[in-house]
Amino acid sequence: MKKLIECVPNFSEGRDMHVIKTITDEIEKVDGVRLLDVDPGKATNRTVVTFVGSPEAVVEAAFRAIKKAAEVIDMSKHHGEHPRFGGTDVCPLVPVAGITMEETVECARKLAARVGSELEIPVYCYENAAFLPERRNLANCRAGEYEGLPKKLQDPAWKPDFGPARFNPGTGAIAIGARDFLVAYNVNLNTTSTRRANAVAFDIREKGRPVREGNPITGKIKKDENGNEIWIPGALKACKAIGWYIEEYGIAQVSINLTNISITPVHEAFEAACAKAQERGLRVTGSELVGLIPKKALLDAGKYFLRKQQRSTGITEEEIIRIAVKSLGLDDLKPFNPKEKVIEYLLADTAEKKLVGLTAEGFANETASESPAPGGGSVSAYIAALGVSLGTMVANLSSHKPGWDERWEEFSDWAERGQQLKDELLFLVDEDTRAFNRIMNAFSLPKGTDTEKAARSAAIQDATRYAIEVPFKTMQKAYEGFEIISAMVDQGNPNSVTDAGVGALCIRSAVMGAWLNVKVNGAGLKDKEFLATIFTQGEELLEKTAVAEEALIAKVKGKIG
To answer: Which of 41, 285, 326, 472 could join 14 in a cystine, given CB atoms 3.0 to 4.6 angstroms apart?
Structure first.
């Protein structure tokens, strides 16, 4: 797997778009990185930038951006709502794919060393890249902010990990780290009171609030017998939060950092903020995402809110995310486009032309053209996807059938399984064409020398084997659809039984069509042992398919008379 790192530097400029672009231009000059998101905030006077790429390219792009920020941002003139202590305030690296946290830490420290030595900016390594336990927490590194930096740098306990222990009024300091994916998320309140927003923040954040004597706001913090401050923990783990007022929107917000969304997902943070706000006579009007979010976080949120409504979660990914956006109020302050905010969507290769992205008419026209692909394998996978989709439709209709309210979850589970199987089959639609193209590419390889002939022959055999495996996988996945179809014929909405029957017919056609592709591609493979195994399993699957389809159609006919 290709190694990918995400970098999310936060620059202390959110108002001058020319300055911001000057910095992001440096990132885009580096080959091997892709700029995903630039999210400026006027009130915070801060811009969160997100880019991904290979480790070496990301380190280079981050260094260039930090260097440019040091040239164009003057921290002595900076004011904003967000805590900060440098022109490039923080620069975390996040492992995305094919790379461990340990390797990411090495990259972060390599970047930190270069920033400290070449740019002479004081650098503190935080989170997983920290050299000292007390520096793991970013809040500790940034305590005192920019204004307290001259004194902090004189303290031997806070000597920078890299760079000079000398105050530079133009650049300030920087925290460079390696961490897991963090979601920066603001909850909007129907108040202008920072104090009330802070109260909600203290209610939910893991750190909580200190126990005070007398006045709960201004009273002296209580201490235990050892002299340690006494704190009441908040409701949520892996959650940092503060309250602030955003003049741009005229509201107060609870600004939340979710440091581990597998412990506290976005929807739980939102619900907790709603509950605590209501206890204090406030109302949450929506929320705001800063930067990017993993697709799973929005899917989990959408399914959570659907379950609260006792509605089926077996709907399309697009519909689930739409429910999440509306339920979380992510479009409360400005339009929210998932294509611009979900990291997987931004990383998707949009250059590749996909069959499944065509209209029904377009797919038919492409199939009917002079091109040999898409052919029978892709069409078989598509027929199977349609068959499973019909079964899924029956499950969703059954989950919402009047009088069957207590059975919504039973049918929702079937629909969710159907959606997953449908998506796997749609992937095989295009994968069958890719397999065909691999064979064509292998045959086009040079065959002059003995070495070239051997390489060409090996490539042809590898491509042929894959061109057998793909339609065989279509057979297997299509057959799995019978379980859903059967359950819907037996238990689903009787008004839709014929839809399930058509689904069964589609699945049988798909299995038979994919089998023809397995057979024809097998003629060119030299690995006879592999072929024998595939052919035996294929014949068995073909026979089981015929039996299952015949039994299901008989049931359908019985139900419709």
So the answer is: 41
CA distance 61 to 52: 10
Cβ contact 416:433 at 8 Å: no
Distance CA 455, CA 298 (A): 46
Query: What single letter denotes the amino acid at residue 533?
Result: T
Which residues of the chain are in CATH 3.30.70.670 domains? 183-347
Question: Top-level CATH class of 4-178?
Answer: alpha beta
Token pair of 264 as six digits: 């506290």
Res 349 pLDDT > 70 = no
Give the side-chain half-sphere CA count within 13 A for 125: 23
Q: What would the pLDDT profile of 528-540 be if each residue is shown by its tens digit? A: 999 999 999 999 9
Does pLDDT of 1 surpass 60? no
Distances (CA, A) of 114 to 72, 84, 136: 19, 21, 20
Would you say 377 and 517 are in contact if contact means Cβ atoms under 8 Å apart? yes
pLDDT value of position 350: 59
pLDDT digits (tens, 9 = 90+) for 266-313: 999 999 999 999 999 999 999 999 888 889 999 999 999 999 999 999
Helix, strand, or coil (residue 12): coil
Residue 352: predicted pLDDT: 67
| 3-state SS track over 405-429 | HHHHHHHHHHHHHHHHHHHHHHHHH
Expressed in angstroms, the distance from the first to the final Cα of the chain is: 55
Tell me the C-alpha distance between 163 and 348, whole Å.
38
Q: By 3-state DSSP, what share of the chain in percent is helix, strand and coil, each rounded to 5?
A: 55, 15, 30
Sign of CA dihedral 473, 477, 478, 479: positive
Helix (H), strand (E) at residue 172? none
Q: In CATH, what is the architecture of 183-347?
A: 2-Layer Sandwich (3.30)
Are 107 and 178 spatial neighbours (Cβ–Cβ below 8 Å)? yes
- What does 65-129 look like in DSSP terms, one character per residue? HHHHHHHH--GGG---SS---BSEEEEEEEEEES--HHHHHHHHHHHHHHHHHHS---EEEEETT
Residues catalogued as catalytic: 82, 432
> What are the Cα distances from residue 218, in Å, to 205, 221, 280, 282?
20, 9, 19, 22
**pLDDT tens sequence across 374-385:** 899 999 999 999
Classify domain 355-560 at the CATH class level: mainly alpha
> Amino acid identity, residue 501?
G
